[in-house]
Design goal:
- It is built from 4 helices and 3 strands; from the N terminus they run βααββαα.
- It is of the alpha+beta class.
- It has one domain: Alpha-Beta Plaits (2-Layer Sandwich).
- A 3-stranded antiparallel beta sheet has the order 1-3-2, with no helix packed on it.
- The two termini are 12 Å apart.
- The mean pLDDT is 95.
Length: 106
């Protein structure tokens, strides 16, 4: 199982709305993530907007490609794009660059 961690930056003026959106993620989006192989997916948000994402998956590239092929993901990414800083024209899920793992206590 591949462990993936990534960082994004949520706009400070939209933190409360970002939290609210994730308190009620669309059921079809949750189903798509599960079907695409996203396991133990968590998001952690710091008060300054730093977002830390973590997930486990057999193959991150395949999991991303599977999500990219779904209609619900296209709608979700479009609805969430305005929440983030520095996407450089990418959808939020395209801007998720995995961090290098340097230690893991098994």
């Amino acid at each position: 199982m591949q462990r993936v961690c990534f960082l994004l930056k949520v706009r400070h003026d939209r933190l409360d709305e970002y939290r609210a959106r994730h308190a009620s993620v669309w059921p079809d989006m949750l189903d798509a993530l599960t079907a695409a192989g996203w396991h133990n997916y968590s998001l952690f948000l710091r008060v300054d907007g730093l977002l830390v994402g973590y997930l486990e998956t057999p193959d991150f590239a395949a999991a991303q490609a599977s999500m990219a092929s779904t209609e619900v993901n296209a709608r979700w990414q479009k609805s969430m794009a305005g929440f983030f800083e520095q996407l450089d024209g990418q959808n939020p899920d395209e801007a998720m660059t995995p961090l290098s793992e340097v230690f893991h206590l098994a």
